[in-house]
Structures are given as C-alpha cells and as structure tokens.
Design a protein that fits this description.
This protein is mainly alpha-helical. The chain contains 15 helices and no strands.
C-alpha cells in the first residue's frame, strides 16, 4: 500500500500604528507576477514565480508556488517554511491577536494559512506527526468554520497518531457531514478501538453508503491517478481516489481491518457496485490484505 499518495532588506515595509505592514508597490507587482504564473505550466510558471521574488523577496505566494512546483518533499517543505516566514513578516506585530476572529476572512492572512496547511500535509507524509498536528490545531482554532477543509487531514492525522479522544471530538463536530474521509475514518477508528461488533459494522456500512467506490480503490483493483483529483464530489470516484491516496495506508496499518471490510461489505458490493467483476476482485484482495 503506497503511503499517502503540494533575504533582503532592500525593500522598506511601512507599518501602521497597530504594527501591521502596509503592502508596498513592489509586493503588489510580485503578486501580479504570481497570478500570471498560475496561468502557466512547468518551467514558465516556475520562472515567473522566481521573477516575483526578484521583485519582492518576501512574497509568500511566490514561495508557495515554487513549493508546489518542487518534487522533492524536503526541498518543498523549505519553500513552504519560507512562505510562512514571509507571510508572518508582512502581517506585522502581534498579528495573531489582531486577526483573531477574522482569519481567512482577511485576505492578507490567506497566504500564511495556505502555506501552513500544505506544510502540515508534507510533515504528515514525513511522519513528523506532532508538528503537523500543531499546525492543524492552529488552523482550526483560527478559522473554526474551516474554509480550507483542514478537518479532513486533521482527522486522518489524529487517527494515525492514535489520539482517540481528540479524534472523537472532531468527528462529533462534523457528525452530520457525509464525506468519505470522515465516514471511513470513524469506522476504522471504532474497529481499532473495539474490534468487530454489530455497532462497528453499522458504521462501516454507513461509510459504504456515503461512498461505495472506496473499497474498490483500497483493494487496488483500479489504479490510482498520479496526482490527486483537482475537484471531487461527495460519493463519486474522485472522492474515493483522494481518500485512498491520503488515508489508504491506515487500513493496511490496522491489523485485520481490510479483511473486516471485505466481510462486512461483501454482500453490499455484490448487490450495489455496477461492475460485478471489479467488486469480486476487490473482495478477494481485501480478504487477502493488500500488504500480502
């Protein structure tokens, strides 16, 4: 199972009385260059992002864009850290206090929050779980409405870290949300905690009703895409792909979880999945365990 498959003192920045930085013209020009870069691909995109940093070295959006174009994770993480440092510098003194209650709603905080969320995902991949969790907690605290969708990755990270109590509180907060991530995360968490039972079986059946495609991709009978889907819909195949790319490894790490899935969902897959041959192969693979 593949594991979870994003200096210069030349410019003087003016401050207002509250300590916030006022964006200089150079920053606006750099941000415009980043907007142009996002409309390009490959080398052209990267070149424009670097031009933005030549215009204004503390352009957080440019650092994040370079991170997105960097394949090696350690190097990518360095760029996201530079983006965070640049964004905090521009937000000014005591920015956490000043933006309390308006994070994300204030557009100037978004480059910081975006870079932090992407860094946390990479930290999770690198098994630096504690730092990833710290970032997720901050983002959820700053923006309880969670416009970024951080709670999906946060839930998976809590499951991986075996933070049962915190995970259960998060799941309770979103108990009415029908998403593959939360539904299958809850089922797996309860199976790990209590083992197979009528109650845990019901939660897995409920997750299947939310998205029937997850067992197919988890069983590796259909290939996952090389990159995560850019858009997903609740219950569709792209949602299943994204879930398995991010969280599929967790099922292989919990002893007996895949076999339990096969036993509980066998009749449901046979009845409801449109491709009966794929359903049969998925059940077979899950019973063996994809690590076998």
């Amino acid at each position: 199972m593949t594991k979870r498959t994003t200096k210069s003192n030349v410019f003087l920045i003016r401050r207002d009385a509250a300590g916030a930085h006022k964006a200089p013209e150079e920053l606006k020009l750099a941000q415009k260059k980043v907007s142009q870069a996002r409309a390009e691909e490959g080398k052209k995109r990267l070149a424009l992002a670097k031009e933005a940093l030549e215009i204004f070295p503390d352009c957080a959006e440019a650092h994040s864009l370079i991170a997105e174009e960097t394949a090696e994770r350690p190097a990518r993480m360095k760029h996201y850290r530079k983006a965070i440092e640049a964004a905090e510098k521009l937000l000014g003194n005591e920015w956490e206090r000043r933006y309390r209650g308006s994070f994300w709603l204030a557009s100037e905080t978004r480059p910081l929050m975006h870079a932090m969320a992407m860094l946390a995902i990479d930290l999770q991949w690198e098994d630096q779980i504690d730092e990833a969790l710290d970032i997720y907690r901050k983002l959820m605290d700053w923006n309880p409405t969670d416009h970024q969708g951080v709670h999906y990755q946060f839930a998976a990270c809590l499951l991986e870290a075996n933070r049962s109590e915190e995970l259960e509180k998060l799941l309770a907060k979103y108990e009415d949300e029908a998403s593959a991530v939360l539904s299958y995360t809850k089922a797996l968490h309860l199976f790990r905690k209590y083992g197979e039972s009528e109650k845990t079986n019901q939660f897995l059946l409920r997750a299947f009703q939310v998205n029937m495609h997850v067992p197919i991709y988890l069983a590796e009978v259909l290939p996952l895409p090389d990159t995560a889907p850019s858009t997903i819909g609740f219950g569709d195949e792209r949602e299943a792909e994204a879930y398995v790319m991010d969280c599929g490894y967790l099922w292989a790490d919990v002893a007996g979880a895949e076999k339990w899935m096969a036993q509980v969902l066998e009749s449901e897959l046979e009845k409801n999945y449109p491709d009966k041959e794929l359903a049969e192969k998925a059940i077979k693979n899950l019973k063996k365990g994809t690590k076998a």
